[in-house]
Design a protein that fits this description.
Oligomer: single chain
Shape: globular
Mean pLDDT: 90
Number of strands: 9
């Protein structure tokens, strides 16, 4: 039996994935997790093991935390690798308000709120797709707080792992018929006819490589994940993350952040050979930062490496985290 076949057999259903997590209250105004009955919003996360030193898994667009479902069976158990899977507002089993300012900043706010609520003291950041930009926001905030003489505002960071993510504002290569086109659509475009399976499959097919034989069952399950809580409109509502990244220019440029932090903790960035969305990012990383010691990895397949190469991606994550196990931050004195 091939690794790909085994992975598909082991894949949990969306129902099982979300049943294994929890929905908690979130107050956007105070940027805090609150009692569920008083909450303006409810957000989903999934946790495994003792979270004081958990690995934080930040999701990709548009599949959210469910994108990690094929990775999980290939990762060490909860005792060896405690895990926190975050779900942003608008994704998966989190609430999906239509009158909401979806942005990189509000996603970073939520991550920090969950860290505070769960008393995460030390973490490795693992980000896929647009969470690479969220990680840049989290790192930039710490520099800005330090300049103001304020605490870091979060756990000690052991390392940063970004795959198929947006690193440089000038490195995005999204085809015109994907996120650029989605930005032009109104929210109502994904109600009624917008729920067409045929149209959805045509739109999402570019995320897989030509050699990966995605099944209708996989596509239908992904569509059902996006449509939870009437949320297919999120495809258009949150499609501005590339423009958001580019508008912030130097502030969220990965090269500047890597230079600032490279002596504090290690980085690994990677990309898929056939990723149509961010295929220039790894080349730019090698060109601009390779001589500075940035670790860079490539895997075969399309953008959804989490679907096509779950075992290989899990092995990279495991090896990266394992290499941090002897660092002092593994047993930090306390959160910043």
């Amino acid at each position: 039996m091939s690794p790909e076949t085994l992975s598909r057999i082991q894949t949990s259903s969306a129902q099982a994935w979300f049943a294994g997590g929890e929905r908690v209250g979130y107050d956007l105004r105070t940027r805090a997790i609150v009692a569920t009955e008083d909450a303006p919003l409810k957000v989903f996360f999934r946790r495994e093991g003792e979270l004081a030193n958990a690995v934080s898994f930040l999701p990709g667009f548009p599949d959210g935390s469910f994108g990690w479902v094929k990775i999980l069976p290939h990762l060490p158990n909860a005792a060896e690798m405690p895990k926190l899977f975050v779900e942003y507002v608008g994704m998966g089993d989190s609430d999906k308000p239509k009158d909401y300012a979806y942005s990189t900043a509000e996603r970073a706010d939520l991550v920090e709120a969950i860290w505070r609520e769960l008393a995460v003291r030390s973490t490795t950041l693992v980000g896929f797709d647009f969470s690479g930009i969220v990680i840049s926001e989290l790192l930039r905030r710490r520099l800005e707080r330090a300049e103001r003489g304020e605490p870091a505002g979060g756990p000690e960071i052991r390392g940063v792992f970004i795959f198929n993510g947006g690193l440089f504002p000038d490195g995005h290569t999204h085809p015109w018929f994907t996120t650029p086109f989605l930005r032009l659509l109104p929210n109502w475009a994904f109600t009624g006819p917008g729920r067409s399976f045929t149209l959805f499959k045509m739109l999402i097919a570019v995320a897989w490589s030509k050699d990966y034989r995605v099944t209708d069952a996989e596509v239908r399950e992904l569509q059902s994940v996006l449509d939870r809580h009437d949320g297919l409109f999120f495809l258009a509502a949150a499609a501005g993350f590339v423009a958001d990244h580019q508008a912030q220019g130097d502030r969220l440029d990965f090269g500047r952040l890597f230079t600032a932090y490279r002596d504090q903790f290690p980085f690994l960035v990677g990309g898929s050979d056939e990723d149509p969305f961010e295929h220039r990012q790894v080349d730019l990383a090698r060109e601009r930062l390779g001589k500075l010691g940035l670790r860079i990895e490539r895997l075969p397949g399309g953008h959804f490496t989490t679907s096509e190469q779950p075992q290989a991606l899990a092995a990279l994550i495991t090896k990266f985290e394992g290499g941090l196990s002897e660092t002092p931050s593994r047993n930090p004195k306390g959160a910043c």
